[in-house]
Amino acid sequence: MAQPRDFGFGADETMIKDAARRFFNDNCDDSTLMALVGGNSDPARAPECLWDKKVWQQVVELGWTAMAVPEDAGGIGMSAVAVAGLVEEAGRAAYPSPLNATINATYVLAACKTDGAIAALREISEGKTVALATTDKQGSWQSADTDVVASGSGKVSLNGTAWFVQDAGKVDSFLVAAASGDGVGLYVIPSDAPGVTIVPDSINDLTRDQAHVEFRSVEVDPACVAAEAGNGDDALDAALPAIHTLTAADMCGAGEWQLQTTAEYARTRVQYEQLIGFFQAVKHPIVDMMIMIDHARSLVYNAACAIDHEPEQSAIFAHMAKASASDMARFASSRSVQFHGGIGYTWECFVHLRFKRQLHNQLLYGDSAYHRAKLADKWMGPIAA
Fold first, then answer.
1. pTM greater than the 0.70 cutoff
2. Do residues 81 and 17 make contact, with C-beta atoms less than 8 angstroms apart?
3. What is the pLDDT of residues 251-265, one digit of tens each?
4. pLDDT, tens digit, for every residue of 196-215?
5. Closest residue by Cα to residue 316 from 260, 264, 381, 253
6. Cβ atoms within 10 A of the Cβ of 372, count?
7. Kind of pairing, strands 148-151 and 157-166?
8. Which of 48, 251, 325, 354 would give a disulfide with 296, using CB separation of 3.0 to 4.6 Å?
9. Do 65 and 129 touch, CB atoms closer than 8 A?
C-alpha cells in the first residue's frame, strides 16, 4: 500500500500535536521543569524519581496514554503518526513521565493478540502505566536476549534480572521477557508483586529514572501471560519499528528546543561588541542543526507512516530514523552547549537538561552505528568477513 501525502498528517494528527505543545508549554515550561528535576546539583546524588503526578493525571484524562491502544481493547487507536507527534512534543518539553515507556509497552502488547495482552491494554486505556523489562545485562536490544528465566509447569515462576528498565519507579507494572526451553514469553507483572525489587540506576538524564529490576520466585498469574513461551520475541520484533521511531521522535522534539533556544541566544548575546549570531562560526552550525533536525523529523514521520500503511517497510524506515536522530542529537547537543559559552556549562542554564536527555536517547534502543549495521543487513544482506 502506498503512503498517503504528508505522511498521513491530517486534521486529527495536527490537532493532537498542537494541543500537546500548548499543554506542555503551560505545565512543563523550562522553569517548572528545572524546579522539578534540578534541585540537587551534587554529582554524587542518589538516583531520584522526580515527576508531577497531578500533571500526569491530566495527561491520562486527555486520553493520550490510550492513543496507541487499539479500539477493540478500549483505546483510541490513533495512527502511529499521531502518536509520534505527541511524543515529539513531550521530547521538546523534556517531560518527566512514564508516557514513552507506556506507549512502547502498548505496541508490544498490541502485537501479542492474546487475552492477557488485551486485559493489560484495557488497563492502560484506563490510566495504568507499564514499562518494558526485556533487556539483558549486556544491553542487547535483541528480542531473544533476556536474563530472566521462566520455569515451572502450569503456573510460571520468574527468576533473574531485567536491565535498563526505563521509568521503572513510575510504572504500575512491567512487561517482562523471560526465557524457557520453549523460547521467550512475555508476562505482565505488577511492580509491587512479591519477589520484585526495583534497584535504581545512576544516570545522567534528570528527566527520567532507570533501574534494573530483580525477580525472585515471582509467580505469574495465568491471566497475566501476554505471550506464551516461544511467541514473545515475535511480538517484541513486531513492535520494534514503533519503539525506534518514537525514540527518534522524542529526540527531534528535544533537538527543536535546542535549535530555537540556541538561535535566540545567538540573536541577543553580545561579545566583542557584536552579536555572536553575526559570526559564521556560530550561525552556520546553527543552520546545520536546523537541516539535521528537519532531515531526522522527515525520516521519523516517514517511518511512522510506514507503520500505519506499509508495515513491511517499517523496520527499514525506523532504523533510518533512529540513526539520523542519534546523529542529529549528538551535533545539536554539543553546539547548544558550546554556543551558550561558559554559562552553557553551568547547572543554572536549562541547556543541560536536553543535553542529558539526548545523550540518554542516543544509546536507548541502539545508537546510530547499531542502526546503520541493522539497516545494512536488511538492505544488503549479511556479508561474511
1. yes
2. no
3. 999 999 999 999 998
4. 999 999 999 999 999 999 99
5. 381
6. 18
7. antiparallel
8. 325
9. yes
To which H or E segment does residue 148 belong?
A: strand 148-151
Radius of gyration for the alpha carbons in the chain, expressed in angstroms and rounded: 21
Coil vs helix vs strand at 150: strand
| Placement of cell 540518554 in the chain | 360
225-252 pLDDT, tens digit per residue, is 999 999 999 999 999 999 999 999 999 9
Q: Element (H or E) spanning 210, and its range?
A: strand 210-219
* CA distance linking residue 322 with residue 326, whole number of Å: 6
Q: How many C-beta atoms lie closer than 10 Å to residue 58's C-beta?
A: 13
- Per DSSP, which regions of 263-331 are E strands? 270-271, 274-275
Question: Cα 210 vs. chain centroid, distance in angstroms?
Answer: 12
The angle that helices 280-309 and 314-338 make with each other, rounded to 10 degrees, is: 160
Domains and their CATH numbers in the chain:
5-125 (1.10.540.10), 130-229 (2.40.110.10), 234-380 (1.20.140.10)
Stretch among 57-66, 153-162, 328-337, 353-362 having the lowest mean pLDDT: 153-162
SS3 at position 161? strand
Question: From CA 179, how far away is CA 21, in angstroms rounded?
Answer: 41
